[in-house]
Amino acid sequence: MTDxxxxxxxxxxxxxxxRLACIDAPEGKQxxxxxxxxxxxxxxxxxxxxxxxxxGLYEIFVAGQSVNLQMIQEGNAVVYxxxxxxxxxxxxxxxxxxxxxKIQKLGFWNQQNPVMPWNFRQGKPSNQPTYSPFxxxxxxxxxxxxxxxxxxxxxxxxxxxxxxxxxxxxxxxxDGITCENLP
Length: 183
Fold this sequence. Notes:
The protein has helices at 33-43, 67-73, 81-84, 91-104, 117-121, 153-162; strands at 6-11, 14-19, 23-24, 51-55, 57-62, 65-66, 78-79. It is α+β, with helices and mostly antiparallel strands.
């Protein structure tokens, strides 16, 4: 096991590193990082029989259940939107599983101001913009948000923090603060 979103498997007698698609787990030195690593190790012990599905990266199945989705639903990883582009058919499952973990304050989501793993790796606090070199496929998003869709700036900020690249253009001046005209 390397961390909460990648592991080593024995594929045709050869040790191969597998990166789980659609998820990003907290880093080892980040809040919940070690717990996420331990949970993936428990789900995937060395003798565990698995099924792989390649979708750019890999989705791992144990007994017909997606390990990737399980890690999200349990709060051991977050949805990595840039990887959802190759997995459009189940995008809503991943987003709903993450929303469930957030509402229940499970694992990674049991903290006041979570710093997304991609921001943690870059040393950015949670309220800074989360730009990525990968484009967002807007057809995978649940809806198109605009500032008038929100009652408060905090609601808009929550959506902004959830999606890479600000696909809704909620932060027009790129200062990390969305819909600044809202209360």
